[in-house]
Amino acid sequence: MITPNMAASMLMRWRGSGWACLSVARRPFTSGPAPAGVSKLQSTFLLYLCQRFHDVEQLVAWSSRLRSWVVRRKNRYYGYTQRQYGENVATAFYILSMRGAFRFAEQSEWFRPDSRGKFSWDFVNFPDVRLEEVDMSRTLMNYTGLDNLVCQRGLRILSLQGCPEVDDWFLSRLHVFKDSLEELDLSHCPHVTVGGLAALHHLRRLRRLDLSFLPRVQNPGMVRILLEEVLPHCHITGVETGLMYITYWPESIGQSHSVTLE
To answer: Where does the secretion signal sit in this chain (predicted)?
Structure first.
């Protein structure tokens, strides 16, 4: 039985060959006594949130789906542009569309969009010149978007600072630049872990690697030591190993020794 404090709403549902009438109880807004220590305004607000929680949940789900759609759309493969204007122009167009920046080989001028995302189309005049330096900092570039960049086998410098979509799968695909890439910036990438950093051992020509502020990387000092083993010519910044003293007692000597690792 529905009490006076409950509001009943009727719903119709199709059951087999006819409609069935369902009675659904819903608690209305009430001005009942609030718990101790909670003001009337707070009580009303909490009650409103409880009754509208489903709507908020749906809104969050729609927002998440919309963001995923935007990321997929931005990282689509620019195949038509590549067929019409060449792979260099297609890569340049993708970078500028993502609000990134780049520099052609043997040129000092940078191509980058303005604050409104507008950019110059002069890059179409260099269809035969490869890109040498790319800055995709704080863009939504992801693993799929690399399809537009892997053709640049002469890429020397790549900045991915603060990219929220860069993860271990993304890093595992950077091996295509093993013969050219010299500088890589992965600072402030929230989804990079040790597993992704291990894939960088393919980049034998790497000379500089920035690993600043990687929240999901545990024991960064140890990670740096391991990377320096596989990339001996690379200068790694952003993580400090510090000094670690290890005391051991060789059985054959019976005396303690201290070893300092820098």
So the answer is: none
